[in-house]
Amino acid sequence: MQDNQLLDDLLESPGSYKQQILEALEKSGITTYSQLFSTLGDQTANTELRKTLCSALVFVSKRVDKRRAAGPLLQVLNSPGFDLYSAACRALGSLQSKRALPYLIDFLTNRDQPLVIRTEALYALSTYQPTPSVFRQIIHDETEELSLRSVALEWISPAGLPLTEIINFLSHRSADMRFWAAYRLTQTWEDITPALEKIDEVAAFDHALPDYWGWHVDREALYVLETIYFRRIILNNTIENFTTPSVCIISPAAEYMTFVKKFRTWTEDGRYLTQPESKQPPLINSDGLAAKLTQNWPHIQLNIRQPKPATYLLDWQLTIDDKALIGGLHRDQYAVVLTGDKSVIYTFAAWYRSIIQPEQVLYLYKWADEGIELISGVTIDELALTTDVASYKAKF
User: Fold this and answer.
1) Angle in degrees, CA 277, 279, 283, rounded to 5
2) Residue pLDDT, tens place only, 17-29
3) CB of 257 within 8 A of CB of 368?
């Protein structure tokens, strides 16, 4: 770190928001790291400026002297105002300062602190790899705030919680803990086959909603279930050089982020109010679907999953353009789950749209994303273009 290179370091850092930071620093006459640290630690300095300086440190975290940056940031932690505290936490997290570690843990574990303060400290600590052991303590502490336990379970590093413990949380009385336990199983390269029996049960029957953020637990569990079966059926349990397949749902109902945006409302205590869905989705007859699948793809294999999952009334495997696809009709009789290469999923989705009444609304959901409406007569190319544009918009 060179003292007079602050603005140049910012300019070379990735991200568009940096331009606003550069303008704010130049307007304030702050052009060196020494000036930044001095102003940051000054309790009388403008609060908005100090927040901007914290953001600047996030951008230059790979160039800055962490030892020099930690002191002023720790002073900011004790300044009044949540926004300023939050900005300092983000900066300390990006620096992964060893000096800051005990202070952040103290904020996290101090139950006299407001929950938002403790949660922000947890987010900062989640950037440390591996995450501190306090995450595991909080996750297992039944007397702790449920929202804090949920966030800890979401952000703990893959090595921080043994597979057996994650599987146990799939049976927890709280839908929030079951939801994030299912998510945790999507974040590891470990062999998650031991979770098959329990994750199948969750994906089949657990249509509960978390009190805090999220969608139905069974929908979150589908990705894990599909990953296990895809590895077993298509990859012969070989996970070396394994690339995660796309997992999608075709459904007439609101799912994933569409459901959250359409039916869930955040409240100030962090919990969500949920509006009831207007009507029951139309049901699909599994025998009728099996007949149409066989007619269109004579070489399709039906009900090939072993052990037979409770999640699906009907499941299948087929190959399109030398690419494998596995799928299933959920036991709710309206959601169709597809796993494989995106191009094969688009081919199947266009065909499936063609066998459903044109007036019936259908959506294609990538796992955990918003839905794309499947218009009657949609082509494979149109689907590919639409989903790619939607993914781009979701990122930016």
Assistant:
1) 120
2) 788 899 999 999 9
3) yes
pTM given for the model: 0.91
Query: For 299-310, what is each residue's pLDDT tens digit?
Result: 999 999 999 999
- pLDDT tens per residue, range 64-98: 999 999 999 999 988 888 999 999 999 999 999 88
Judge if the upstream peptide bond of residue 130 is cis by omega within 30 degrees of 0.
Answer: yes
Strand partners for 364:
250, 372
CA–CA separation, 167 and 311 (whole Å):
17
User: Is-cis flag, bond preceding 307, omega within 30?
Assistant: yes
What pLDDT does 396 receive?
31
Question: Token pair for residue 111?
Answer: 């139950």
C-beta contacts of 132-136 below 8 A and 24+ residues apart: 132/101, 132/105, 133/160, 134/105, 134/108, 134/109, 135/160, 135/161, 136/160, 136/161
Strands 336-340 and 246-251: antiparallel
The separation between the first and the last C-alpha atoms of the chain, rounded to the nearest angstrom, is 31
Structure tokens at 170: 């799939």
Q: How far is it, in rounded angstroms, from Cα 339 to Cα 362? A: 18
Amino acid present at 264: R
Specify the 3-state DSSP secondary structure of 216: coil
What are the two backbone dihedrals, phi and then psi, of residue 60, each rounded to the nearest 5 degrees?
-105, 20
Per-residue pLDDT, averaged over 202-216, amounts to 97
Q: Both tokens of residue 27?
A: 């307007």
Residue 49 near residue 35, CB atoms below 8 Å: no
d(CA 306, CA 221): 18
Residue with tokens 């796993």: 339
For residue 24, what are the contacts with CB-CB under 8 A and spacing of at least 6?
A: 49, 52
CA 213 – CA 206 distance, rounded (Å): 16
Residue 389: half-sphere exposure toward Cβ, Cα within 13 Å? 7
Residues 235, 20: Cα–Cα separation, whole Å? 48
